[in-house]
Amino acid sequence: EPEVTQTPSHQVTQMGQEVILRCVPISNHLYFYWYRQILGQKVEFLVSFYNNEISEKSEIFDDQFSVERPDGSNFTLKIRSTKLEDSAMYFCASSFQGAHRDEQFFGPGTRLTVL
Amino acid sequence: AQSVAQPEDQVNVAEGNPLTVKCTYSVSGNPYLFWYVQYPNRGLQFLLKYITGDNLVKGSYGFEAEFNKSQTSFHLKKPSALVSDSALYFCAVRDIGTGGSYIPTFGRGTSLIVHP
């Protein structure tokens, strides 16, 4: 069964450093998403991406965040200057189109720890 | 605006007994409702969804959920729990009256523990 994969599984960084979180969505999916979950809190939407551009983003997704699909398989989330409050589990997801667009497939997550 | 509440942080049930994981929602229009399950070290897996039609929706692994519009609920159920059902369960809602947004709002999650 195809799966969304994410690397690394755990990233530790110093405050102010840049991090790039990587995702490989399911190959025939067209919509891509990033979510985060701060420990003990809700899963929060960050951004969605379709046809090589951002289709929706939340208030959390400010200028320090960016997304990119650098090739036909990877989907990345960059945080330019990390803050302590960016520590969270970051989930990538993807979905197909049409009637299946709402069925999002999630990766296992990257745990980001900012020190 | 759309929101979802999972009132229980944890649900404990004995193997073989029926289980219910509760979810209530709030939308301004009509809801699309979803349940996801997360096993340890895995991503969220789609279980089932309610779009329209029959209020009882059947999904993967023997789970089902009942949409109740008057109570704004979408509780997840299974007639006979298995130890392997132990996981974190997330309810999500999308308001189809939000001008084209396809982004769901997730609950905090409920940890289901099935005891042998």
Share of residues in helices of chain A: under 10%
Q: Quickly count the helices of chain B.
A: 0
Assign the structural class of chain B, choosing from mainly alpha, mainly beta, alpha/beta, alpha+beta, or little secondary structure.
mainly beta
Describe the oligomeric state of these chains in a short phrase: heterodimer
Basic shape of chain B: globular
Beta-strand residue fraction of chain B: over 45%
Tally of DSSP β-strands of chain B: 12
Mean pLDDT of chain B: 92
Rounded to the nearest angstrom, the radius of gyration of chain A is 13 Å
What count of helical segments of chain A does DSSP give? Answer: 0
For the biggest sheet of chain A, the summary is:
7 strands, mixed
Share of helix of chain B, binned: under 10%
SSE run of chain A: EEEEEEEEEEE
Distance between the termini of chain A: 37 Å
The largest sheet of chain B is:
6 strands, mixed
Q: Quick one: which chains have the greatest interface?
A: A-B, 26 and 23 residues
Distance between the termini of chain B: 41 Å
The average pLDDT score of chain A comes to 93
- Global Rg of chain B: 14 Å
What topology emerges from the helices and strands here?
The complex is a heterodimer of chains A (115) and B (116).
Chain A: E1 5-7, E2 10-13, E3 19-24, E4 31-37, E5 43-50, E6 53-57, E7 65-68, E8 75-79, E9 88-95, E10 105-106, E11 110-114
Parallel strand pairs in A: 2-11
Antiparallel strand pairs in A: 1-3, 3-8, 4-5, 4-9, 5-6, 7-8, 9-10, 9-11
Chain B: E1 3-5, E2 10-14, E3 19-21, E4 24-26, E5 31-38, E6 44-50, E7 56-58, E8 64-68, E9 73-78, E10 87-95, E11 105-106, E12 110-115
Parallel strand pairs in B: 2-12
Antiparallel strand pairs in B: 1-4, 3-9, 5-6, 5-10, 7-8, 8-9, 10-11, 10-12
